[in-house]
Amino acid sequence: MSNSGPQDWIYDIIPAKQVEEIESKAKSLQQNLDNGVNVVLSATNDSAIKLCRAYYDSTQGNMQAWLHIMGFLDALIGTIEEHLQEEGIDPYAK
């Protein structure tokens, strides 16, 4: 190992550029873990019951119920996408 300092020992094992990439990814991961979206669902009891029934019916092969559930999920995902875009995050980037 080199005597370049107590903080620099890592560069003897991993190239500096790779360390920078790891640190950048770690910061991004930490930011994603520290921040998030709160989704509040507000519905009447009647609407909640209909949603539950539609979900159950969709699991039993009812296509109309499945379309109802997909509409609900589409709205939910749209809300989440909007939040992520406001945070400067592309949820579909790999």
Describe the 3D structure.
This protein is an all-alpha fold. It folds into two domains: 30 residues, no CATH class; 57 residues, no CATH class. The chain has three helices and no strands. α2 crosses α3. The longest helix has 24 residues. It is elongated, with a radius of gyration of 23 Å. The protein starts with 15 loop residues before the first helix and ends in an 8-residue tail after the last helix.
What is the overall number of helices?
3
Gyration radius over CA: 23 Å
The beta-strand count equals 0
Report on the biggest sheet: none
The gross shape turns out to be elongated
Series of secondary-structure elements, N-terminal to C-terminal:
HHH
Report strand %: under 5%
| Class based on secondary structure composition and strand pairing | mainly alpha
In total, the number of domains comes to 2
* Distance from first to last alpha carbon: 37 Å
* Helix content, binned percent: 55-70%
Mean pLDDT: 87
Quick synopsis:
With 94 residues, the chain is mostly helical. The protein is built from 3 helices and no strands. The chain is elongated.
Topology:
Blueprint: H1 16-34, H2 45-59, H3 63-86
